[in-house]
Amino acid sequence: MDLKEIQSLVKLVSSSKVDHLEIDNKDFSIKIKKNSAKTEVVSMAPAPVQPAPAPVVTSVPPANTQESAPAKPVEEAVKGEEIKSPMIGTFYRSSAPDKPSFVEVGDEVRVGQTICIVEAMKLFNEIESEVAGRIVKVCVDDASPVEYDQPLFIVEPI
Questions:
Q1: Which residues pair with 133 in a beta bridge?
Q2: Which of 47, 97, 126, 155 could disulfide-link to 133, CB 3.0 to 4.6 Å?
Q3: Cβ of 49: how many Cβ atoms within 10 Å?
């Protein structure tokens, strides 16, 4: 695991509702804890078979929750059933950057059809539709972080 991967994990924890992330692997162990003051990598111990790099400590200040969110334009209410993210991760509309999206607004989907991918910890999880219907809205931008239970799509049942 390199520094960029660790920094992305720290950012993921600091921007999510998760307070504690712990990964134990045969090659390394990492713990990331979030408290009200800061988010930091608490421990990174490499496997003894590798040369021991210096421990990495990264601090990321949490978002200021006391500021009010900027006013957003009022959107027209879209009716339908929400398909929500089953996990925290990064949302992808296609299997690769050069591939077409799994679904577009207006497409009809069936139960069990792959509609997107949520990447979590280098695992690409195919998300399947739980509803048969027509895609009315894509709620998340491609390659954006998503929270558990965050709406990804709105589907008008048929």
A1: 109, 157
A2: 155
A3: 7
Q: What does the pLDDT look like over 124-154, one tens digit per residue?
A: 999 999 999 999 999 999 999 999 999 999 9
What is the domain range of residue 37? 3-60
Tell me how far apart the alpha carbons of residues 131 and 158 are, in angstroms, rounded to a whole number: 9
- How far apart, in whole angstroms, are the C-alpha atoms of residue 158 and residue 153? 15
- Domain annotation covers residue 14: yes
Residues of the chain scoring pLDDT < 50 = 36-39, 72, 74
Residue 6's SS3 state is helix
Residues 56 and 92 in one domain: no
Considering the entire predicted model, what is its pTM?
0.53
Tokens 């496997």 identify what position?
47
Q: Does residue 67 belong to any structural domain of this protein?
A: no
Q: Give the number of other Cβ atoms within 10 Å of residue 16's Cβ.
A: 16
Residue type, 1: M
The total number of structural domains in the chain stands at: 2
